[in-house]
Write a structure and sequence with these properties.
Chain lengths: 153, 175
Amino acid sequence: MRNVLIAFIATCCWMAAAIGSEAAPAAADPVLEARVNKLAEELRCLVCQNQSIADSHAELAIDLKNQVREMLKQGMSDKQVVDFLVQRYGDFVLYRPPVKNTTWLLWAGPFLLLVAALAAFVIKLRRRPPNAPLTAAEHAAAAALLRGEGIQQ
Amino acid sequence: MRRFIWPLAVFLVLVGFLAAGLRLNPREVPSPLINKPAPAFNLPQLHAIQASINPTDMKGKVWLFNVWASWCVSCRQEHPVLLDLAKRGTLPVIGLDYKDDREAGIAWLREHGDPYMLSAYDRDGRVGIDYGVYGVPESFLIDKNGAIRYKHIGPLTPKVLDEKILPMAKDLNGA
């Protein structure tokens, strides 16, 4: 039984390795390929929206990656390539959308919340009544407690 | 009791945001091409390799540009709506056979009926990228000056056609 299990796991690993090696095409030009991958990680695949076009195996993602590679090969800058895609698919293709009128709240929101929380905390602390000094009777009661005696009324 | 008012208010605001978020369709990405000139292309026609098709040929007309493919399942769902539109003859439809096999595309139209005035053949999907296509079928309403005025993502329904596209086309034709 154990041997069967080990053989099964080994087969799975072997298959995963086979699939893995198929996914990465041999790069003809490593420098170009590095640029393509860096850009592809910043671009969202519109078919499977939580993946970048570097991660996605959707046909559109592969097409877009090829398009990016081709444009970089033609000597276009990263910005030109990104602009090309934004013109067609909108800011939605960018994993890091630009700061605009419609997105400033998105970018600043977490910091605004942090400032608001700190302000609320400080106000709360200031409003707390200061500790009044102990009266003579309270002192005596505390001393008695420390000596291990009960409270004497 | 008063100490619960603030957490309750925050909670209700949060619920409001989440409820609104649930109603949005994340598949519908607003196209940046609305009110911009339809991207130019020059493609072979599906039925005639030598003949080409160019959006400037349609200048002066309001038309619908419909992206389809024989491998696309939702296109079957949308097809009767397009056939009905073609029968009415009020709005010319040009097809874009997207990333398809030519034979398969022609056979598909033979089997299901051909609502298109013409179909362009986009083998490698380059024109699709220019139009920001990411989910076939997609339809673009293009005005007399060649500007995209409306984009519908996913299969057309009689409701979308009658309530949105045809009234808009009528306005654009009148203008």
